[in-house]
Amino acid sequence: MKIDLELVHAEHHRLWGEFYAKYPTDKERLAHRDEMAFMQETIRALYVLEKWAREEGAAGAKALPTLRYYAVVPSVITHVMSTYLPDMGVENIVAERPEKRKNRWATFDKWTKEHQGEQFTTDQLCEISGFSYPSTLNYVKSSPLFTRVKKGIWEVLTTPERE
Questions:
Q1: CA–CA gap between residue 28 and residue 44 (Å, rounded)
Q2: CATH class of the domain at 101-162
Q3: Cα 159 to Cα 116: distance, rounded to the nearest angstrom
Q4: Is the pLDDT of residue 91 over 80?
Q5: Residue 121: is it exposed, middle or buried by C-beta count within 10 angstroms (0-12/13-18/19+)?
Q6: Beta carbons of 66 and 56 less than 8 angstroms apart
Q7: 34-45 burial string, b = 16+ CB within 10 Å, else e?
Q8: Domain range summary for the chain, segments of one domain joined by +
Q9: CA–CA separation, 88 vs 82, rounded Å?
Q10: How far apart are CA 6 and CA 15, in angstroms?
Q11: How far apart are CA 140 and CA 155, in angstroms?
């Protein structure tokens, strides 16, 4: 399907026409804000795809990165891609976001509760935490959860409040 300005304008008018026909009063329209927001985001995504088709579509650039660049909501990306660009495929559109650094350290701290009194090398702690050697070393040096046994060996502290 060719996405051009005519198609986008036609879909824009069609979607709003259906919405107004479905909910004739302002009170009903306001009661269905989620549906209206989804429709508005769909129209915005169509404008983004029109721009993509005009500028980069011929060059072979993928539509998905363009939609993500313009921060189109993942559920709308799935809907738009399956409806207007079915030949491009919609698998793996909603990619998992990487875990935040803060959450990864919190997971590492929870892991220490299960291993109190045990000794580990810095390399082992790097594998467990998932961080680089320097980051892990800085963390265990400054954390009250670890004590240094000797160079490269760390012990997880046993504390009454952690039990």
A1: 23
A2: mainly alpha
A3: 8
A4: no
A5: exposed
A6: yes
A7: eebebbebbbbb
A8: 5-88, 101-162
A9: 8
A10: 14
A11: 10
**Length of the chain in residues, anyone?**
163
pTM of the complete model: 0.55
pLDDT digits (tens, 9 = 90+) for 38-82: 999 999 999 999 998 888 765 556 788 888 889 898 889 889 988
44's tokens: 């915005």
Q: Is 157 exposed, middle or buried (0-12, 13-18, 19+ CB in 10 A)?
A: middle
Instruction: Give the chain's end-to-end CA distance (angstroms, integer).
Output: 62
Sign, Cα dihedral of 125, 130, 136, 139: negative
3-state SS assignment for residue 120: strand
11 contacts: CB under 8 Å, gap ≥ 6: 43, 46
Residues 125-157 pLDDT 10s: 999 988 999 999 999 999 888 999 999 999 998
Q: Distance between CA 83 and CA 33 in Å, rounded?
A: 22
Q: Which tokens hold the place of 81?
A: 């891609």
The per-residue pLDDT for 28 is 93
